[in-house]
From TrEMBL:
The keyword Manganese does not apply. It comes from Fodinisporobacter ferrooxydans. It comes from the Bacteria. Residues 15-328 form the Enoyl reductase (ER) domain. PANTHER family: PROSTAGLANDIN REDUCTASE, PROSTAGLANDIN REDUCTASE 1. The keyword Transmembrane helix does not apply. Keywords: Oxidoreductase. CDD domains: PGDH. SMART domains: PKS_ER. Pfam families: ADH_N_2 (PF16884), ADH_zinc_N (PF00107). This is NADP-dependent oxidoreductase. Transmembrane segments: none annotated.
Amino acid sequence: NKQILLVSRPQGMPSENNFKLVEGPLSIPQEGEMLVRILYVSVDPYMRGRMNDAKSYVPPYPLNEVVNSGVVGQVVESRTSEFQTGDIVSGYLGWQTYAVAKPRQVKKVDVSLAPMTTALGVLGMPGLTAYFGLLDIGRPSQGETLVVSGAAGAVGMIVGQIGKIMGCRVVGIAGSDRKKEYLINELGFDAVINYKTAANLKNDLKEACPGGVDIYFDNVGSGISDAVLSLLNFQARIPLCGQIALYNLEKPDIGPRIQTQLLINSALMKGFIVGNYADRFHEAMPQLAQWIKDGRLKYKESIVEGFENIPKAFLGLFTGENLGKQLVKVSDL
Ligand code: NDP
């Protein structure tokens, strides 16, 4: 059983040296448990926060233990009546090739609905984040302008498309021309700004949002958000989803104080964690699946092959390697 451990806490940008690949003990399920062969591993930006020894909404990863993350796998031995050998399941079982799981740790993936990888993306945590953050906090309505940062990532891409379904003008901010073209040509975004090449982000945004900004779905923070917040409309809504531009900073990032922008526009900024909506996931799943079926919601995955490449795929989130949801394929079905 191959496993990847967190062996040191990153200072600033993480590196492969923070992780170690080891041959772990053989996993043997006890009565009431099952053995799962991991097929796909998810790497997600929030995992960076768990690598720090700091208080947050989830506890830090312990050192020298398997890094926990979402996975999809197949039950290869079941000692519980709730799951059968052959079932495809998803859950937080971590960076390892085999895991022992209890029934409450996993859910069955309905592969007749969509490919199993979607359980880690559009029909999993990122899709639910986009759905509830945008609809519950952003409250989009026809004709409004929605700006989304981190637009070409797992969450951002779904936010923009739901915004289009709701009748918004959708403006994305992303880090390459390839991403920009994909969002405009394949997903129907109205405009996308490449923040890495923009000479003046605020001017470009102003041009892309002639009616101002009604909703800003923030995945990124920092100077990108400062530019967007300067264009808020009266009673704008800002779902505060992520701050990836800050996750690797060693010193705090101090920009213009934004409170005045919120005050003068009677705007609402609300942080949220997708888990806050756990009792409403059952509402979102059929709707997301229906939009996919109707061709109104597309999803994109970047899949790296090979267990040993998991840390590299994780690091790539901070340099923008991924288009859509970043996954690692660990094994064939
Ligand atoms: P993504 O798939 O969007 O991957 C991360 C992307 O962020 C990269 O591809 C990169 O794209 C961009 N990025 C990385 N560093 C920077 C930077 N310094 N400045 C600007 N952009 C950067 O990840 P997710 O969709 O999974 O997550 C998006 C955000 O949502 C994250 O902040 C995450 O923490 C948050 N999140 C919050 C949840 C919640 O419950 N509140 C749940 C899930 C995610 P580019 O090429 O455009 O730079």
